[in-house]
Amino acid sequence: MAQGKVHVVTALSGFVPVMFRRFGAKEELRRKVDNAPSLQEASAKIDLQVQSLEAKILKCDEELKAYVSQATSSAKTRAIQVMKRKKQYESQRDKLIDTQFNVESMAHQQETAEITATTVAALAAGHEKLKEQTGTISLEKVERLTDNIAEVTADLNDITDLLANPLGMAAIGDEDEFAAEYAKLQAEQAADQFLEATLDLPEAVAATEPAKEPMPGVAQATPGASSDAETLTA
């Protein structure tokens, strides 16, 4: 029994340091992540370093021009050293530019993930709110409400029709009687107009006949000439 306890203690003594190392590593990693700069800060720092390297490359170009113009062996040696240094600066600059591209891509993905998370949270909240609002609405209540509205609307239409009917006209006569009386009046008026047109027809014909022209060689009698002839005859 004692030997079994010894084995258990030995096993635990080997497991506990491993467990602490694992949890300690996770805690250290979490602390590093919390203290790490943001992707935007890292990109800005890389950009400053790229600008510094480009300034050094321009300085190397100026030194090369100066050494080449001297045309001496020592100037040639120095020019070769400057070219090597320039090549190194250019390599570092290109690597930093590639690194900056990766950092900016990661920042863009992070922003997209944040927007997606915000959108999902908003949709979830809206869904819960919609469920809460629709949960208080009963389909049966809505159906009864629409039926009641339809009944009230029908009653209101009936009341409106009743109010639109002429008041006190039922004892005088119905619409058919008034229509027959109106047709009779129209017939009488048409007969009167026809009779007047028939009586005025001779005058209208006389007014429209053309005047007779005198025959050639025949003197037309005038009222004065007729009186003179009667006097001579007497």
TrEMBL record:
An example Gene Ontology biological process: vesicle budding from membrane
InterPro entries: Snf7_fam
Biased composition (Polar residues): 223-234
A Pfam family matched in the record: Snf7
Annotated Gene Ontology cellular component terms: multivesicular body
Top-level taxonomic group: Eukaryota
Region ranges (Disordered): 207-234
PANTHER family noted in UniProt: CHARGED MULTIVESICULAR BODY PROTEIN
Name this polypeptide is given: Uncharacterized protein
Organism: Noctiluca scintillans (Sea sparkle)
